[in-house]
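re: that chain from earlier
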Amino acid sequence: MIEVEALHKRFGGQVALDEVHFSVPRGEIFGFVGPNGAGKTTTIRILATLTAPDAGTATIGGVPVADDPYGVRELIGYMPDFFGVYDRLTALEYLEFYAACHAVPHRRRRSVALELLELVDLGERINDQVDTLSRGMKQRLCLARALVHDPLVLLLDEPASGLDPRARIEMRELIRELRRMGKTILVSSHILPELEELCTWVGFIDRGRMVAAGPMSDVRNRVLAGRRLRVELVDADDVKLYAARDQVADRAGVIEAELVEGCLEIAVEDDFADQDLLLDLVQAGVAVRSFAPVTGDLAEAFMRLTAPAPEEKAEEAGE
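^ sequence. v structure.
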């Protein structure tokens, strides 16, 4: 549904995007992750037809963003990280106004607005002025604004920014409901545990370059697999666990081996051949019940993918 190829953008002497590639299949929730200034908002603004790229292409639903911005705007709903509201309008008037901006027929504007207010759980606030709503309510209202023309794709830039825990949960559940309704959703956020629960696909961007992208489990395992392995033994006791630990501790490529919660956890080098270790354990008579990489979380993947290279660390230290 979203295809980005070799996207490049420069602001003066600063490269904001450098050959950015990723795709988002139809019906997925894509978490867009990166440090401040990495290029997330620039990418989203290009997809929203608000910024033109210097090079590369982006398409939404097969429609080129640069060549047919009006066609793209029919397909997308955009919720920016900073949004304005018309404080003196009621919630109902606010959505009716934006429905008119998107050429929703006059006879349908009120019904569309009422349906969306129910969807975002503001059905009881239809006659309240926007300036009386809490921040969380305003953000749900702005999400409803992005939906007035029933777009296929949603671009959400930090939708949970500044929300309290309850409001963040409500926003997360609302995004899930939108996926069930068939929407394809790209969402950026700094709240990594919530993205991990919410998203089905993920992309990491750092200093204007994509460093990983794909299905959530594939990317997480690709980044973190092989760093630690967990071995569970059949009828494990301390004697068997210590024997297994001694069996692998001195093996080339093994950094350390320790007992964790009744299992053997082994830290290994990135290029370590996991299958060879399993074969050696079995041939040594160790009864292995399970053998698998320890799955780290999204925050750990983020830290590894965005860590400065050794030469950059040396430059920062003035070496």
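The two ends are 46 Å apart (CA to CA).
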